[in-house]
Amino acid sequence: MSKLSKILFLGGLITLVMATPLAAWVSDVHTGDANVIYGQQIWPYDSLDVFERYGETYLAPYPGVAGSAIVNQSGQFFDKVTDQIGHKSFFFILDNTSPYTWSRYNFEFWDVGFTHRLTDLTLNANGTWDERFPHHSYSNGVLSFWGALVPPYLGKPGWFANRFMVEFNEVQPMGIRQVALTDVEPPTPLPSTLILLGTGMALVVVLGRRLRV
Fold first, then answer.
1. Tens of pLDDT along 112-142?
2. What is the pTM for the complete model shown?
3. Is the dihedral of CA 137, 64, 134, 178 positive or negative?
4. CA nearest 105: which of 40, 35, 48, 44?
5. Taking a C-beta distance cutoff of 8 angstroms, is the pair 60, 75 a contact?
6. Cα–Cα distance between 181 and 132 in angstroms, integer?
């Protein structure tokens, strides 16, 4: 095959790949919220770029971490599932369109039904990194990035194109849960005693009006 033929062949292959529907490689589980996948691109050596926006505004407690997780209105995280083949390397290009500054970013790895975490999944330490957070750790199926952002303005609302590289030692289909965390504490729910007191006072008012009638 001549050099020109190879170039034309590769160009056609790239065009075909780019025209493939988004659901071909990674699919968003909770469609309709403000956390979205807006682009994907496959590369040789089983590497996949995933372009995302994390734009939800609701807060919820997250185990073992001060502050809050940023969730959708139903309390759900940014969940996605890979295709049945799976991929070895993921390059997440992520925009922070939420109103919060991120203090930490977690990836949790689950089975495709999100019924159990893949605690025995191994990562390639040399192929896992982030260009913003200086530290990361991996344990029991959770990859966590944290530390003072460099420079410090990154991670704030409107922070675009943060890049997380995640590389596995084995390839399998899986569910990937992404959790953006902020130092802002979740709103304190109204204590049940106050709710009961308010309900009781409302009943007293209603009964008093009926007796006067």
1. 999 999 999 999 988 898 877 888 999 999 9
2. 0.77
3. positive
4. 35
5. yes
6. 15
